[in-house]
Write a structure and sequence with these properties.
It is a single chain. Helices cover about 60% and strands about 5% of the residues. By secondary structure, it is an alpha/beta fold. It has two domains: about 5-35 and about 85-255 and about 265-440, no CATH class; about 35-70 and about 465-605, no CATH class. Strands 4-3-5-9-8 form a five-stranded mixed β-sheet. A hairpin with a 2-residue loop joins β8 and β9 (about 595-600). α6 runs antiparallel to α13 (about 360-380). The chain is globular, with a radius of gyration of 26 Å. It starts with a helix and ends with a strand.
């Protein structure tokens, strides 16, 4: 027999779901439009070029000293090979379609395993706009967004497996869950620790004696097997060169000053953000225990406004906006997730020490939070974004928050409408501010309202950007056409890797993302490696500054360029020495008297 509350919940699910799907669809439409704004010469250019160079002839080991740590290039290589004419916008669209597909699959899996579906479109609405990258930095598929995709797929198959009646179906689904974990680790080798996740879930199921969900040792083996098998075959195929390339990659990374003090450091700014988010989260749970409905709603609305203005004003001006203000708003989203991780596992520990069992929703939240916690911690350590990257695997976390809060609301006899209202009051400020940031921040380009020029040719076709970027894009293509032929090699530095795929010229150097934080000996080795492989450049593009615009705080919409990375004419770095000795100036692109981009060509031409 259903209780009165359960009957009421069943009756309200469909109308709530319909309203949620309207919001979800609207968010997805705006997210699709957002994809065409902003051109990124540097980070996104790197991710594109590293995959493209493999598709047009380079080998990810034999033609690179480093590169064995991030295998998303092998995945994206297949896309370039299947569709050689694909554009940057095309890659962004693939990422977006994968996001929506993963959300629909995950939502169906959550429904099959829990019986709840009405609130899911609300919970997932922010991702329908931001895609797999809630930070709003790069709307593409690479080593930061592939983990978000694969962890969502892993949990989808795992939850389907929990609910499967046929043993054969269950085994197939668990195998797919395991392959998803392998795909996650393939995108970035450092994330291979995710394999601990199913082991942790199995251990927690035994320790808490789960009554509503069963995950046996046999199930665990089926999840682990594809991961172990796939990596074994991969290592056998690539053998010793692969291991040596890993060693070289790690040595280069550790030689950089930014990593000399270790991977883990104490970040006081992060502690401040997480502490404030933790207080706000605790206040929310305290509000749920107020006795009167009107009081709960009033206090919840007041807290929601407090959260909104805390994010909007960076805690009323008391906190420095995170990372020069670029990522201040998504950092609050990450802080909420980190605070919830701490809260959740402290709650689990207290339950274990007090020898209290878990209800159905709490058991379900364990399946969601265990893999999220592991991947969040790993990405925080190995990503250059640090703890900000936590929100780049937020899809399972938001589902975990929902089911955990739903358990609290259920125990307090909240009606379905009231429960949804309280969840929305908590999440709406984080969602709105994250989405607003994503719309306004086209990483290293102008805001969409100022992007008034459409790129009409090549890899950037269909992207709206500023007039300066568009002219630079055309200048690069014109020089490549004048001084090179297909199959030639090029040098592009500093930090302008997109040049290669724009011009269709493979990189002469091992590293397309040239930063002088790396040692001179490394670049000397790159030059020697280039000569041994007969990859001498026919053309070189010298950017003394990164071709990247950043927002200025003085005026809304104002942007500026970064300072000089080096002075080409006087620099004694191995690349500049080689270019000056073996190539001759051919053209320049002047932005200002102190900001000139140079084109050099091989003297023999």
């Amino acid at each position: 027999m259903k209780t009165a509350l359960e009957s009421q919940s069943s009756r309200y699910q469909m109308p709530i779901f319909i309203i949620g799907m309207i919001l979800f669809t609207a968010a997805a439409c705006f997210g699709w439009v957002k994809l065409r704004y902003g051109f990124n010469f540097i980070d996104e250019g790197y991710h594109a070029t590293e995959s493209w160079r493999l598709a047009v002839g380079d080998h990810f080991l034999e033609d690179k000293i480093t590169g064995a740590l991030m295998h998303y290039t092998l995945i994206n290589r297949l896309i370039f090979e299947v569709c050689p004419e694909i554009t940057l916008l095309g890659f962004r669209k693939i990422q977006f379609v994968l996001t929506i597909s993963a959300l629909l699959l995950f939502g169906l899996a959550l429904f099959k395993a829990s019986g709840r579906y009405a609130e899911l479109p609300f919970i997932f609405s922010v991702f329908a706009f931001t895609g797999l990258d809630p930070i709003g930095m790069i709307s593409n598929i690479y080593y930061q967004t592939y983990p978000h995709l694969f962890i969502t797929l892993h949990l989808s198959f795992l939850l389907f497996g929990l609910n499967a009646q046929s043993q054969l179906t269950k085994k197939v689904l668990y195998l797919l869950a395991g392959f998803s974990l392998w795909g996650l680790s393939l995108s970035h080798l450092a994330l291979s620790g995710i394999i601990i996740s199913p082991v942790l879930v199995y251990w927690l199921c035994r320790k808490f004696k789960f009554a509503h969900y069963t995950f046996t040792f046999k199930d665990l083996i089926y999840v682990l097997a594809p991961f172990i098998f796939s990596w074994t075959i991969f290592i056998i195929v690539f053998n010793k060169p692969y291991v040596m390339n890993i060693v070289s990659s790690i040595e280069v990374i550790l030689s950089m000053p930014s990593h000399s003090s270790g991977l883990i450091g104490l970040n006081w700014e992060l502690i401040k953000y997480v502490s404030i988010a933790g207080v706000l989260l605790a206040a929310f749970f305290l509000i749920l225990h107020l006795r009167h409905l009107i009081l709960v709603l009033t206090a919840g609305a007041a807290l929601s406004l407090m959260i909104f203005f805390t994010i909007k004003t960076s805690f009323f001006g008391f906190l420095k906006p995170y990372y020069n203000g670029w990522f201040g708003r998504p950092m609050w989203f990450s802080s909420l997730l980190i605070a919830f991780i701490l809260f959740f596992w402290i709650y689990m520990l207290s339950k274990y020490l007090l020898k209290r069992g878990l209800n159905k929703e709490e058991e379900f939240a364990v399946f969601l939070m265990a893999p999220f916690t592991i991947i969040a911690c790993t990405m925080s350590i190995f990503s250059g974004l640090g703890s900000l990257s936590v929100c780049q695997t937020a899809i399972p976390a938001m589902a975990g928050i929902f089911f955990f809060v739903a358990a609290r609301l259920k125990s307090l006899k909240f009606s379905p409408a009231m429960a949804l209202a309280m969840i929305l009051l908590l999440l709406s400020p984080f969602y709105y501010m994250t989405a607003e940031n994503d719309w306004n921040f086209t990483c290293f380009d102008v805001q969409p309202a100022q992007a008034d020029t459409r790129i009409e040719t090549g890899f950037g076709r269909g992207i709206y950007t500023n007039q300066l970027y568009s002219k630079l894009y055309d200048w690069l293509i014109a020089n490549a056409a004048a001084f090179t032929k297909p199959g030639d090699y090029a040098i592009s530095y500093a930090v302008a890797p997109m040049v290669h795929i724009i011009t269709g010229l493979r990189p002469s150097l091992d590293d397309t993302f040239v930063i002088f934080e790396k040692s001179e000996s490394y670049f000397e080795e790159c030059i020697e490696f280039m000569k041994q492989k007969h990859r001498e450049p026919k053309i070189a593009f010298i950017f003394e500054r990164m071709p990247a615009l950043y927002p200025l705080p003085q005026e809304k919409g104002a942007v500026g360029f970064f300072g000089k990375s080096f002075d080409f004419m006087t620099s004694q770095d191995p690349i500049s020495v080689y270019v000056r000795a073996n190539m001759t100036p051919a053209s320049t692109f002047k932005i200002s008297d102190d900001h000139i981009i140079r084109c050099y060509v091989n003297q023999a031409r």
